[in-house]
Design a protein that fits this description.
By secondary structure, the protein is mainly β. It has one helix and eleven strands. The termini are far apart.
């Protein structure tokens, strides 16, 4: 079965950190461009950060630049999102997605991709 599974979400205080993981099973992640997306209640899903197949190119939405870092370990079939200096407005369900033959820029802008995970809840609150 081909799937992506996210983990690492939780409840954290403002200013805290979390690291999300996205593990692929049933397929080899290194051939795919990967993106992290989030959806807050009542809002559209947005692309947060995306990374190329090699990890050499990345893209971030302006609101997380300097705070979030995307990385990938193709040997472990895993992509990470390190989130620092978290703010209440970062509260959302976070999803990872994988797509073939797409640029990093297009990955973060488009909302239809080959594979999606089930999501992990991130709540930033005091």
């Amino acid at each position: 079965q081909l799937q992506l599974v996210e983990s690492g979400g939780g409840l954290v205080q403002p200013g805290g950190s979390l690291r999300l993981s996205c593990v692929a099973s049933g397929f080899t992640l290194e051939y795919y461009t990967i993106g992290w997306f989030r959806q807050a209640p009542g809002k559209d899903r947005e692309g947060v950060s995306c990374v190329s197949r090699s990890g050499g190119a990345t893209k971030y939405v302006d609101s997380v630049k300097g705070r979030f870092t995307i990385s990938r370990d193709n040997a472990k079939n895993t992509v990470y999102l390190q989130m620092n200096s978290l703010k209440p407005e970062d509260t959302a369900i976070y999803y990872c997605a994988a797509d073939l033959g797409i640029t990093v820029q297009d990955m973060c802008v488009m909302n239809r991709h080959d594979y999606w995970g089930q999501g992990t809840q991130v709540t930033v609150s005091s």
